[in-house]
Amino acid sequence: MGKSRTGKEKVGVRVAGSPAASAKTGRVSSAWPSSCVFLTSLVWGDDVRRAKDVFKKYKCSADGKHVEASAAATKRNVRWQLITDERHPAKGEYGLFAQRKLERGEHVIDYLGLVTLKGNESKTSDYTASFGDDNELALDAERMGNEARMINDFRNTGARANALFDQYRDAAGDLKLGVFAGPHGIPKGDEVLVSYGKGFWENRLASMGADDMAQFCGYQAPAYDQ
Fold this sequence. Notes:
The chain is built from five helices and 14 strands. By secondary structure, it is α/β, with parallel strands linked by helices. It has a four-stranded mixed beta sheet. Strands 1-2-10 form a three-stranded mixed beta sheet, with no helix packed on it.
């Protein structure tokens, strides 16, 4: 995670294996990844806490008074499972799937992880999202996060993005990065898919030494970005 350290706030941190995956007939599930600490709230890094004006701007609640993710609500909305479809570009990894029909604009889940100042995040993480009104923060779910870290990009899945990331303020006034159902909603059983953005794939291709998407995964990604 680079040089950034986890903040002192321990509420909302659970040991690996805490969430229970849905294990119905025909679904392949597994224990929560041991490499990732399961969270029920954001963890604010020491660097953000030292930047007091920034910290107070985005975390209005006192320590221990923040809003935690509802396990029951998450279970009603989504399940995570191992992807076994040979045609899926994320085969062998996890995906997030709708447990019920999710209506247009409906809040699906929050994206949780470690919040650091922009530039202090892990440079090798595939789980980093820009955060803050001016993108002055980074939210990384590589080493700690929740089910939202399982959400895949839509490219080469044969489907379009059906969800999107958006920032909002929760009941305590804290900034959150939420995942919301797209314009057409998400049918029950469908995988929740977003667009990581072209910048993500450009960086990923460069890190892998590939010249284009075809070289990276064996076929061309769609040209549209939505």
